[in-house]
TrEMBL record:
UniProt-listed Pfam families: Glyco_tran_10_N, Glyco_transf_10
Membrane topology: Single-pass type II membrane protein
Stored InterPro entries: Glyco_tran_10_C (IPR055270), Glyco_tran_10_N (IPR031481), Glyco_trans_10 (IPR001503), GT10-like_C_sf (IPR038577)
Transmembrane segments: 7-27
Taxonomic superkingdom: Eukaryota
GO function term, MF aspect, one: fucosyltransferase activity
Principal EC category: transferase
Domain Fucosyltransferase N-terminal: from-to ranges: 94-184
Official protein name in the record: Fucosyltransferase
Pathway listed: Protein modification; protein glycosylation
Subcellular location: Golgi apparatus membrane; Golgi apparatus, Golgi stack membrane
One GO term describing the cellular component: Golgi cisterna membrane
Keyword Cytoplasm found: no
Length: 416
């Protein structure tokens, strides 16, 4: 089994750097239209938002604003409750404190939510997709951070999303060109779990079923149910779990899986997933929409920690996110029929099938939380040196939907 040199290359500092430069050049075309640079600003105004329809009734006092290093503490404020659930478990009761920044190069920051005088807020993090109205006032010097984990194909009908011209400074999304890119899992060099030949034999022996998928949102722009039907029509047996299928699993329902997605402590318990996945040869990682860089826990840590081959259907370039020969990507096949043939071949050829687990001898996967920690460290650092990181997105809706005039998503092209 040969792993591409290029992939290893990413791991050395020079290669990481040259890749970063490559990526910025690649994406620089997008910024030409959406990003402008502005002159420094100095002062806050002291006005409280005239309305706070989206703020909760939570009130919180900033418990300890003293500092030992002489640095002003920066207050990072979570504006709308609709996305607390994403961060709530990660923040886990440390609202109003600096706890999440311990170990950061610059740690003089706190995360807060609830009603707080606007002059105490240095940065607002918000998810306009869920907000009828934008925050009414942007005081000078305040930084606005756009947060979104979904693609623009979903529910971007709120007025606020389109009202944000020249307001958003930084972005935290699933896109690689975001200021703080956040994926749902990462591959790291170094194996935590090395399979012996016997392990591999046992793994293969248990797999008496072909493909499994968990779906609870049925109609999607990616038309994944249609894709499944087509795959079945070419003789691939697919068991569909979740609200859109016929199978259900205790403790592994949609809500359980959703909660566990953003639960730091939270693997699903009991590990229903692992037990089920061990019987199948393939996991269908079918995203709801087909968009640039949009790949989720369906093909990252959540699935890849188990011995199963993901069949990925999404709009990302999988070779950037995954080690070579660790996945099957539907776009690499001329048709669903060809894909089905390949899956049948692998099902019948143990050696060829198990070759897809060779990467596990060199890499392991990690959940997203280390990356979140690092993103918040970087946010804190930037807030202390804003002049180094000054930027404004001229039109965040355009950036999210069609940077450089090219839509980030495309419709299904394989349903023939
Ligand atoms: C918020 O507080 C107001 C007045 O204190 C109360 O009437 C309202 O029910 C509260 N809303 C929620 C969602 O708790
Ligand atoms: C507040 O911070 C100071 C300096 O870091 C520390 O000495 C003190 O114990 C803290 N007080 C509380 C109530 O956390
Ligand atoms: C922290 O230290 C700086 C410099 O001594 C000071 O200006 C600031 O008021 C202190 N307190 C807070 C809450 O940042
Ligand atoms: C597959 O194996 C599982 C146990 O690992 C067993 O419960 C199930 O009945 C088997 N299914 C078929 C179709 O043989
Ligand atoms: C996260 O998982 C732990 C342990 O499984 C559980 O006790 C907790 O309620 C979960 N939190 C959320 C937000 O689901
Ligand atoms: C995907 O990324 C690889 C680099 O990992 C690149 O060589 C390839 O051209 C990209 N493919 C597409 C379709 O952009
Ligand atoms: C099974 O796959 C291996 C590795 O790809 C290949 O060398 C071998 O010829 C295949 N066996 C059959 C019977 O096709
Ligand atoms: C943030 O955006 C505002 C304009 O909305 C701008 O004046 C300010 O300089 C920006 N700050 C940073 C740190 O980018």
């Amino acid at each position: 089994m040969k792993l591409e040199a290029k992939w290893f290359c990413r791991l050395t500092a020079i290669c990481v750097l040259s890749n970063m430069i490559g990526i910025s050049l690649y994406y620089s075309q997008y910024f030409i239209n959406t990003l402008i640079h502005v002159a420094p600003v100095k002062e806050f105004s002291n006005e409280y938002p005239s309305h706070s329809t989206d703020a909760t009734n939570w009130t919180i006092t900033l418990r300890n604003m003293t500092n030992t290093t002489g640095k002003q503490i920066k207050n990072i404020y979570f504006y709308n409750p609709q996305f607390y659930h994403v961060f709530n478990d990660w923040i886990s009761g440390t609202w109003g404190t600096s706890k999440k920044f311990e170990g950061c190069p610059v740690s003089e920051c706190i995360v807060t939510k609830g009603k707080i005088p606007i002059e105490k807020i240095d940065a607002i993090m918000f998810k306009p997709r869920d907000m009828s109205y934008c925050p009414p006032i942007k005081p000078l010097g305040q930084v606005w951070i756009f947060v979104e984990f979904e693609t623009p194909n979903y529910y971007f009908r709120t007025k606020c999303f389109y009202d944000l011209k020249n307001k958003v400074n930084w972005t935290m999304t699933y896109r690689r060109d975001a200021d703080f890119p956040v994926a749902h899992g990462y591959f790291r060099r170094g194996n935590k779990r090395k399979y012996s030949q016997k392990d591999l034999d046992d793994i293969f022996a248990k797999k008496n079923k072909t493909a499994v998928v968990f779906i609870s949102h049925c109609p999607t722009v990616g038309k994944r149910l249609q894709f499944i039907k087509l795959l079945q029509s070419y003789g691939i047996q697919v068991d569909v779990f979740g609200l859109c299928g016929t199978k259900t699993l205790k403790d592994c329902g949609n809500e359980d899986r959703y909660k566990a997605s953003f639960n730091v402590s939270g693997e699903l318990k009991p590990d229903c997933f692992g037990t089920v996945l061990s019987q199948y040869k393939f996991f269908l990682s079918l995203e709801n929409s087909l968009c640039m860089d949009y790949t989720t826990e369906k093909s990252l840590h959540r699935i890849m920690q188990h011995p199963i081959i993901p069949v990925i259907r999404d709009g990302s370039n999988a070779s950037i996110f995954h080690p070579p020969h660790s996945y099957i990507h539907t776009s690499n096949y001329g048709s669903v029929k060809e894909l089905a043939q390949h899956m049948k071949m692998l099902s019948a050829n143990k050696t060829a099938y198990l070759d897809y687990f060779q990467w596990k001898q060199h890499y392991h996967t990690e959940d997203m939380y280390k990356e979140w920690n690092s993103a918040f460290c970087r946010i804190c650092e930037r807030l202390h040196y804003p002049e180094k990181y000054r930027r404004v997105y001229r039109d965040i809706a355009a950036w999210h939907i069609s940077p450089g005039g090219k839509h980030v998503c495309h419709g299904p092209m394989d349903l023939r």
